[in-house]
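mind reviewing this fold:
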Amino acid sequence: MQVYGVNAMKKTAVYMWVKRFSEGRESVTDEERSGRPATSRTEENTAKSRQILRENRRLTVRSIAEQVNIDRETVRKILTENLDMRKVCAKMVPKELTEKQKQRRVTICQDLLKRQDDILGRVVTDDET
């Protein structure tokens, strides 16, 4: 607990894994489970979600889920994992800026640096002594 802090496994989880390995388990990966496989995160649904977002980035996950007719959690995973996006205020935006966006930021910063002397030259300072 001292080394890993709050990221340390709970004692019960450690005991569970010790029991599983002592019973012969050799891998920490999940085993196959019965039931239907998840079929909502398809290329088709990913493409639909991407198109909907291109048209309006201010849509909620709920409204996208309704339009694509899939679960909200699936839409959230498509947006964050497949489309590599994150939520900023009410918009879904790419996690990394494009080259054009980066260059625009550099240009704006350079312009502000050039104007800095003009702006700071208008400030009057005085020593009260």
About this structure: Helices lie at 11-22, 43-55, 61-68, 72-82, 99-121. The mean pLDDT is 82. The longest helix spans residues 99-121. The first strand starts at residue 85 and ends at 88.
